[in-house]
Design goal:
The structure is a single chain. By secondary structure, the chain is α/β, with parallel strands linked by helices. The protein has one domain: TIM Barrel, CATH 3.20.20.30. The strands form 2 sheets. The chain has an 8-stranded parallel beta barrel, surrounded by 6 helices. The longest helix is centred in the last third of the chain and has 19 residues.
Length: 327
């Protein structure tokens, strides 16, 4: 059965609001909740960037049923992989086994802030692979010393290891990354509804590996007023039009503003379903389950309408999505 999730968008909401939305999303019936992990919003109009791990710790205590995940954390520059291993183990204990650690190679926007520069994509992939091995080793609870090409770990141990191991979801974008990371991860993460990703991931995994989930994400902008929805999506989500190859390398919100200055409201409305029509949202989400995704998280664009979305639209939307999706 297809699972549907809610996105805790740290770039557009403050920490207390995110916890409130997490509770409301669980009450509305979402199956899981994913959180972005940014140091900066893409655009200044979004206006927020609280620390995702503190928010998730609070959400783990404020909820009891929904699964939680980072979507995604970069464990290579802003965070050392040993620190990620400790944070993920602790969060899994707080969440009582409901947490998935989503990992990816990151964005310049967030990682440049510690002054270590922004490597080329091949180097970022090498760093990510090494970080995954370190996290896996530390999650055994054994003493770890590591001397790699990019990271050192000196006599480190995670003292609080959860009873339920932390699954790793890995963000992939094409055949090369799938071939490299599918054998290292538990679940696939992608924002592209591409069946080749799902099939390639399955083919690259060890046949003895456990069941793997594929976790997608799509922005929507529900509002009773379609014009207001389009305006909000354009104001806060026009950066989305750049695509990953552009977005990963831009360093600041000013850069995103410049790169998206010629994106029109109608351009955004073509890629993000906007307005009150729930059937249009279902139609936009459908390519994900048609491609074989098992889990799909929606991003409701903008903070100012989250309460109303969760109170008025979330339940009927979930009903429509579950009626249309394969079981």
């Amino acid at each position: 059965m297809t699972r549907f999730g809610y996105t805790l968008m740290t770039e557009q909401s403050g920490p207390r609001e995110l916890v409130k939305y997490a509770i409301a999303a669980e009450d509305a019936g979402f199956d899981f909740e994913v959180s972005s992990d940014h140091f900066s919003p893409w655009l200044t109009s979004q206006g927020h960037a609280p620390y995702a791990w503190t928010v998730l710790g609070a959400v783990a205590q404020a909820t009891s049923r929904v699964e939680l995940a980072t979507y995604v954390t970069c464990p290579t520059i802003r965070y050392h992989p040993a620190v990620i291993a400790q944070k993920a183990a602790t969060l899994q204990i707080l969440a009582e086994g409901r947490f998935i650690l989503g990992l990816g190679s990151g964005e310049n926007l967030n990682e440049h802030v510690v002054g270590e520069g922004w490597p080329a994509v091949d180097v970022r992939q090498d760093m990510l692979e090494e970080a995954i091995h370190i996290i896996r080793q530390l999650h055994t609870g054994e003493l770890v010393t590591w001397q790699g090409d990019y990271f050192r770990v000196d006599s480190a141990r995670i003292w609080d290891i959860p009873d339920v191991p932390v699954p790793l979801g890995l963000a992939v974008s094409g055949p090369k990354s799938i071939e490299r990371f599918a054998p290292l991860g538990d679940h696939l993460i992608s924002t592209e509804p591409d069946a080749d990703l799902i099939n390639g991931w399955a083919a690259a995994r060890d046949t003895s590996a456990g069941t793997s989930r594929s976790i997608g994400q799509i922005p929507i902008c529900w509002d009773p007023n379609k014009e207001a929805a389009v305006d909000r999506a354009h104001n806060q989500f026009r950066w989305f039009a750049g695509g990953w190859s552009v977005n990963a390398d831009l360093p600041t919100p000013a850069g995103f503003a410049g790169a998206s200055q010629f994106v029109r409201p109608e351009d955004v409305a073509e890629s993000i379903p906007c307005g009150p029509d729930l059937d249009a949202i279902v139609e936009a989400v459908a390519p994900f389950w048609e491609a074989g995704f098992s889990d799909i998280a929606v991003v409701q664009v903008g903070d100012e309408n989250q309460d109303r979305f969760l109170a008025e639209a979330a339940v009927p939307l979930l009903d429509k999505l579950r009626a249309a999706a394969p079981r």
